[in-house]
Amino acid sequence: MAYRILCIAADPDRAEGYGRMLADPAYEVMVVGAGDWNKQLAEDPPVVIVSELELHGTDGLQVLEEASRLLPGAQRVLAAADADLELLEGALAAGTVHFVIQLPGRAETLQTVIESALERRLRQDKQEAVGELLKRQNQELESMARQFESMVDRRTRQIERAKKEWERTFDAIVDPLVQVGGDFRLRRVNVAAARHAEQDVRKLPNQTCYSALFGQEAPCAGCPVAGGVAAWPGPGAAEAEVADARHGKTFQLAAFLFDAEPSDPRFVCHYRDVTRERRLQQQIRQSEKLAAVGTLSGGIAHELNNPIGVILSFVQLSRMSPALAGDEELADNLQEIEKAANRCKKIVEELLQFSRPSIDRQMAPVRINEPLDSALFLVSTQRKIREVEVRRNLAEGLPMVLGNSNQLAQVFINLVQNAVQAMGKGGILSLETGLRDGMVYASVSDTGEGISPENLKRLFEPFFTTKAPGQGTGLGLSVSYGIVERHGGRVEVSSKEGEGSTFTVLLPPAPTDESGGGQ
């Protein structure tokens, strides 16, 4: 490929001289006058423009200045015979002219200048190519940077969202959940843990777990974290039971080794409140003991029937003896012995009846006065009931109810015992049965201390009791409530503090074909 060179000359002879001096296959020389250079510039853009300073109607500086605007990439050479040095320096400094040669000149000089101009053009082209490449690379880098920033921003939002989701999940757990270090200091806690510690969740980190959660001055007994990583039992949870004396609770601790870094190990500890479970287990054990005592009592009562029968038999034989005639004191004594023996016999019979196993499906028509009377008779053997006045107002002719007599007696025993315990020495225990809104009812009232509105809402909760330790389990009313519900009835409570309480059991009448009439 030949390099195109445009020579602008005022004299045709010099124009031919340019052609001879640049006769080289590497060059394509075009020689024009001052009036034709614009057209040639547009048709065949040259790489190098050589213009004489003195031209017809203009000068070379104006031509090259115009050429710099039309073709800024072309190398511009000014050929001058005589010129103002300051003028030439100004043109070179302004970039209008790149090279200057003197006329008349030699071919070697012109060729050297042309070669220098071509080298400069090649360097310029290379610089432009490099600049274009750098520009494209910068654009690509800027695009990649924007994509990277967008990706980082998106990933940051994802991490923040995941962090919030993790924190919300952490706080949604209703049991205390904490992360502790090997020094027992809290690193993270959930809301449930802060609620149990009764502190702001932001103030708990860096406090020791045993102090913040349980108010202790030393680690909890049996805490698996105390042994550190070296004593860790292996994968999975290490469990222990932790007592919270401050709140009277028991927790099942499940600890997990979260990070085994020797310098800063981390453990995740989950505390599950098992207080009610442990109390239930204790009550079940107690119930099993009571069941065993009940079975034993039933056996003893059965064994007592024989000697009581013997006593009654001998009393009756003694009263028939002729020797009794005229001895009123002895006759009265025998009558009292017979009354006492009959009372013992009735107590034994009621104990035997009450101790027999009750099966829910054994339902039969029952006169509601009978289990109420049975309950009152069994409770009447207790000393405390003798300190209160008992008023009975049991209606006659009530419809029978479909139920289990033993279970209903258990309900009334609980209600009567609670009423008696609610009163100190003195007081009035009222028993009443009747018909209300188509339901058969039996109510037990006392003139005791009454029940506060707060406790009234929790009366039938399992294990809820206001009695002193050892005087109640908190199961009597909840069990009674369940029995009445299974009979299709309900329990109503009315109470006023300082005036007493009334518990009313309402049961639906038995179907007419099963009732067997009223009482």
Protein traits:
Helix Hairpins, rod-shaped, 5-stranded parallel β-sheet, disordered C terminus, Beta-Lactamase, 519 residues, single chain, Rossmann fold, 19 strands, 5-stranded antiparallel β-sheet, 4 domains, alpha/beta
Give a written overview of the molecule.
This protein is α/β, with parallel strands linked by helices and 519 residues long. It is built from 14 helices and 19 strands. The chain has helices at 12-21, 37-43, 60-70, 85-94, 107-172, 191-197, 209-214, 275-320, 328-355, 369-379, 405-422, 453-456, 476-486, 512-515, and strands at residues 3-8, 27-32, 48-52, 54-55, 58-59, 75-80, 99-102, 177-181, 186-189, 238-244, 249-259, 266-273, 364-366, 389-394, 401-403, 428-436, 439-446, 490-496, 500-507. 25% of the residues are buried. Mean pLDDT is 81; it is low at 468-474 and 514-519.
Secondary structure topology:
Elements: E1 3-8, H1 12-21, E2 27-32, H2 37-43, E3 48-52, E4 54-55, E5 58-59, H3 60-70, E6 75-80, H4 85-94, E7 99-102, H5 107-172, E8 177-181, E9 186-189, H6 191-197, H7 209-214, E10 238-244, E11 249-259, E12 266-273, H8 275-320, H9 328-355, E13 364-366, H10 369-379, E14 389-394, E15 401-403, H11 405-422, E16 428-436, E17 439-446, H12 453-456, H13 476-486, E18 490-496, E19 500-507, H14 512-515
Parallel strand pairs: 1-2, 1-3, 3-6, 6-7, 14-16
Antiparallel strand pairs: 4-5, 8-9, 8-12, 10-11, 11-12, 13-15, 16-17, 17-19, 18-19
Helix pairs in contact: 8-9, 10-11, 11-13
